[in-house]
């Protein structure tokens, strides 16, 4: 078993659906949770975040989030979550959204990476705008920057490109690649897109009908006959 990284042994029952997994993810790079609609991808991610009740154990870098007599609430888990729809506060500008994240950072003693993130996601010209004045891609870039300002130990991303058209998807993918390459932060990335999985993933967990059908390094998994 890995000394560091995230390990889950979970069972989630949502009648008539049941998710049963036993996975260990590496402590770096992008781990992709991949599968068709209804396979349990988002349910698994929500369980890891503490948003979905489940049976079993979850531990991260040796720290139990669930199990062994412990249960950490979502707010107590050192993670940030990016949803499919950019969840920026609509009454705040981009700058004010970032201010909010900085006030609730998980590491108040650490220097902020605000300027680095603004540059990484190319949002300097968007700071005075509210979300309704942004394109879908701009909103999602700002939402990812806001999530990272919390200085999490792990970033969870639930199909962050699913609501975008093809042009906006191709616009934002290079930013995600830069995030992967420039920030030493483990990322769990949920998608049903084989293209996104192959372009961003280092490690793949393939789900189908609530079960893990294949998991491992990217090129090992996509050559597996069980890969959905």
> Based on DSSP secondary structure assignment, what is the total number of beta strands?
11
Termini Cα gap? 26 Å
Question: How is the biggest beta sheet arranged?
Answer: 6 strands, mixed
- What's the rounded overall pLDDT mean? 91
* Binned strand content: 25-35%
Number of helices: 7
Helix content: 25-40%
- State the secondary-structure class: alpha/beta
| Strand line-up in the sheet with most strands | 7-8-9-3-10-11
Elements, N to C (H/E): EEEHEEEEHHHEHEHEEH
Explain this structure to me?
The chain has 228 residues and is an alpha/beta fold. It has a domain at 90-151. The protein is 30% helix and 28% strand. The protein contains seven helices and eleven strands. The chain has helices at residues 41-49, 94-103, 114-120, 136-148, 166-182, 194-200, 218-222, and strands at residues 6-14, 17-25, 30-34, 55-60, 63-67, 70-71, 79-82, 154-158, 187-191, 203-208, 211-217. The strands form two sheets. Strands 7-8-9-3-10-11 form a six-stranded mixed beta sheet, sandwiched between helices. The chain has a five-stranded antiparallel beta sheet with strand order 2-1-4-5-6, covered by helices on one side. It starts with 5 loop residues before the first strand and ends in a 6-residue tail after the last helix.
